[in-house]
From TrEMBL:
<dbReference type="GO" id="GO:0008757">
    <property type="term" value="F:S-adenosylmethionine-dependent methyltransferase activity"/>
</dbReference>
<feature type="domain" description="Methyltransferase type 11">
    <location>
        <begin position="75"/>
        <end position="168"/>
    </location>
</feature>
<dbReference type="Pfam" id="PF08241">
    <property type="entry name" value="Methyltransf_11"/>
</dbReference>
<dbReference type="InterPro" id="IPR029063">
    <property type="entry name" value="SAM-dependent_MTases_sf"/>
</dbReference>
<protein>
    <submittedName>
        <fullName>MET27 protein</fullName>
    </submittedName>
</protein>
<dbReference type="InterPro" id="IPR013216">
    <property type="entry name" value="Methyltransf_11"/>
</dbReference>
């Protein structure tokens, strides 16, 4: 793409191509194969993108917790190579479980030593490998987007979250993801109105990551696309008063 305004840096062509490949509407087996192949270069590529979502999500979740998080059990959904786990660990979250659809990504995540448990799970196609009300918090960072995880997974995320527990979700606000973002926010709002959870935070962030294409994304001359962090708290089950 073109140069990022003010910094004069050109995003490597290979990074653009790899990001585009996993975000285009390919069939699931092909997409998982692409993620497997990307795993070895993933962290290098997202560093070039200046991808801030793992840091922003972990900071937001840490702020939401009412008590020190050492004993909290967290599920990192679509954990990738473990970028979110690193950020959470720095903030005192030690009991981390992760799931991802890509065996290649899970292998990298396992090498970090930050997860107590890692399982393969293709979210949207199969249930999470966890009992109901098992986690104090659930994160989905980076996977909620066009051509990735469908917004229909929200009830399954809620299922494994304890009453009073937190859910930290992120999505991008760039033009190519706006249709998905609208669907996601409609689903988020429907669950809120039903009393399933309450919204604590919806934080728009301008410099989410560098755009891979100035031509396709409206970066307003910054060279960056924007994104949003959501924090929800699962509502406790109401107790019935005895007569």
């Amino acid at each position: 793409r073109g140069r990022a305004s003010g910094v004069g840096m050109v995003l490597p062509v290979g990074v653009r191509d790899r990001v585009a490949a996993v975000h285009r509407g390919s069939a699931l087996p092909e997409r998982l194969r692409l993620y497997d192949g990307w795993a070895a270069r993933y962290e290098q590529d997202v560093a070039a993108l200046e991808y801030r979502a793992p840091h922003l999500a972990a900071a937001s979740l840490a702020f939401a917790f009412p008590a020190p998080p050492a004993g909290a059990r967290l599920l990192d959904v679509a954990c990738g190579t473990g970028l979110v786990a690193r950020e959470l660990h720095r903030r005192g979250f030690c009991c981390l479980h992760g799931v991802d659809g890509s065996a290649g990504m899970l292998e990298r995540a396992r090498s970090t030593g930050l997860y107590q448990e890692l399982r393969r799970c293709v979210l949207g196609r199969e249930p999470l490998p966890a009992p109901a009300e098992h986690y104090d918090a659930v994160t989905v960072v980076g996977a909620l987007g066009e051509g990735q995880v469908p917004s229909t997974v929200l009830p399954e995320l809620l299922r494994v979250t304890k009453p009073g527990g937190f859910l930290c979700l992120t999505t991008r606000s760039n033009p190519s993801n706006l249709r998905y973002k609208a669907e996601l926010e409609a689903a988020l709002g429907l669950l809120e109105r039903s009393g399933a959870w309450q919204k604590l935070l919806a934080q728009e962030v301008k410099h989410w990551e560098r755009a891979t294409s100035e031509e396709e994304e409206d970066t307003r001359g910054t060279g960056y696309i924007s994104g949003v962090v959501y924090i929800y708290q699962k509502c406790p089950v109401p107790t019935l008063e005895e007569d």
